[in-house]
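User: Could you go from structure to sequence for me? I need the amino acid at each position, not a summary. Structure tokens:
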């Protein structure tokens, strides 16, 4: 079993998804009760945009291994990419019932909730604010119905320090949502693992080093900060410099672009 796992991992490192799937097929045939093989195969199908087969493996996991948090996470990830945000929301909630410390699930849950609100006609700026401030989706809807947030606060924060910041590449497994080259030209970043509170002023000073900041919304109860830059270059530079670093007492922060990029256009 270990040899098959290593072989599949090597195929994945090379981004040979079809080759990896062949390995996982063999592994599942030999070890049909090993849930991680279904998860790995589902991920490969997902990265190939074969959502039908990816979802089939995810649904098998959630049915046959109901306490396996990764199975529910995978199902939510696939459903979100298919635009089925309400179903994805239920999946990420289930992940957090099983593992309330899963920061990736916290971030994904917030993202799909933002998408749900956007589908109701609100801007992403409004939806992001409402989700950050509310205790749940229903309360966020109520805040928006009451006009709690304008479409745009119009604020742009600039650094008082003109010192340039060096930009360093980040190594590791490729993920387009963590690619500092910013292929989708996203102006926004999610910053996770923010377990220690940081003041709004300090956050503005930190993130404005990399570009003009339009807004920053923090929810330390959910361990994240959401930063909107005016230009995608700011988001890219922040990711290059800060990914995996310690930030204001927070160890090993995690930075990702949202699944559906908010651009400056």
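Assistant: Here is the amino acid at each position, in order:
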């Amino acid at each position: 079993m270990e040899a098959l796992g290593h072989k599949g991992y090597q195929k994945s490192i090379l981004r040979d998804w079809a080759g990896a799937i062949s390995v996982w097929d063999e592994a599942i045939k030999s070890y049909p009760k090993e849930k991680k093989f279904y998860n790995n195969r589902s991920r490969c199908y997902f990265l190939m945009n074969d959502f039908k087969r990816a979802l089939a493996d995810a649904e098998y996991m959630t049915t046959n291994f109901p306490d396996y948090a990764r199975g529910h996470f995978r199902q939510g990830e696939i459903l979100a990419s298919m635009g089925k945000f309400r179903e994805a929301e239920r999946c990420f909630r289930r992940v957090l019932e099983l593992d309330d410390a899963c920061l990736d699930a916290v971030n994904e849950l917030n993202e799909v909730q933002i998408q749900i609100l956007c589908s109701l006609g609100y801007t992403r700026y409004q939806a992001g604010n409402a989700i950050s401030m509310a205790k749940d989706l229903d309360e966020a809807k109520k805040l928006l119905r009451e006009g709690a947030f304008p479409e745009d606060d119009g604020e742009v924060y600039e650094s008082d320090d003109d010192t340039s910041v060096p930009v360093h590449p980040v190594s590791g497994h490729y993920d387009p949502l963590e690619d500092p080259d910013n292929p989708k030209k996203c102006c926004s970043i999610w910053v996770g693992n923010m377990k220690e509170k940081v003041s709004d002023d300090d956050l503005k000073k930190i993130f404005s080093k990399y570009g003009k900041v339009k807004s920053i919304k923090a929810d330390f109860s959910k361990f994240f900060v959401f930063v909107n830059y005016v230009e995608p270059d700011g988001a890219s530079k922040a990711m290059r410099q800060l990914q995996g670093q310690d930030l204001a007492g927070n160890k090993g922060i995690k930075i990702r672009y949202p699944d559906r990029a908010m651009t400056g256009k």
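One structural detail worth keeping in mind: The chain has a mean pLDDT of 83.
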